[in-house]
């Protein structure tokens, strides 16, 4: 078997290169030949995948996190000829939301699972923005979840704790976002706290956002949190996101749908797979079984 390996040396704790060196003997023992490429800047993996002659490879292995996976999938989706080359994810990122369902996401453990070469199909979410088409494998967030992401970037020196601190600050601000949501042929024009569409059960670092999500059901799980909530209610509601109990909260609507649209007066920034990119208004739909992954 011949594979291409994409390595993001800056993912997570920056151990991807060392991990790659440690798995070379395992690859050799399993008679796997490979070409390897390191990424050196944002969207580099997109460029690599877009230009590769994928006919040479039986699979794509990656060492990175959700961002690297997002870029590889984007590279596959924007190719003129859509080759369905299975992806093996060796997690070295900080979040690894796509693999969070597994109890053990140790890189060596996950490589050994990949080497069973058992494939499963995975849906991809297509996001049409005013200026571009963006692909997602994890989440599309708008409202409070984007506000937190924007302000957390200013406090990177605080490490992972910055998200908790910024979340508390944003709740205190009690900011609402007005939009028109089109879902199930119904239109809702009102204020919202946030709206997030998920392909996976988990987002971020273990936030159980979409407990009923399946990555290959042809549906996205849409979580809609009402606007005009008091600070007290917000402080009580948001911790439920880590347990998945928010889906029964009266201030939360939970949909499983193949598509939706979100219209806003201005151009609001989005959180797509943990990256701040794209703006509203958006039309979102699921592309069922668009890619294949090992594990």
Sequence-ordered SSE layout with sheet pairings:
Blueprint: E1 2-7, H1 16-29, E2 33-38, H2 44-51, E3 59-64, H3 66-77, E4 87-91, H4 107-114, E5 119-128, E6 133-136, E7 139-143, H5 144-152, H6 161-173, E8 177-183, E9 186-198, E10 220-226, H7 231-237, E11 252-257, E12 259-263, E13 269-272, E14 275-279, E15 282-294
Parallel strand pairs: 1-2, 1-3, 3-4
Antiparallel strand pairs: 5-6, 5-15, 7-9, 7-13, 8-9, 8-12, 9-10, 10-11, 12-15, 13-14
Query: Roughly how many Å is the radius of gyration?
Result: 19 Å
The whole-number mean of residue pLDDT values reads 91
Helix content percent band: 10-25%
Q: Helix count, per DSSP?
A: 7
Order of helices and strands: EHEHEHEHEEEHHEEEHEEEEE
Number of domains: 2
Instruction: Report the uncertain regions.
Output: none
Instruction: Summarize the biggest pleated sheet.
Output: 11 strands, antiparallel
Shape: globular
Beta-sheet strand percentage? 25-35%
Instruction: Output the CATH class name of the largest domain.
Output: Mainly Beta
Structural class: alpha+beta
Give me the count of strands: 15
Q: What fold name stands as the CATH topology of the largest domain?
A: Tumour Suppressor Smad4
What gap, in angstroms, lies between the N and C termini?
17 Å
CATH arch. level architecture of the largest domain = Sandwich
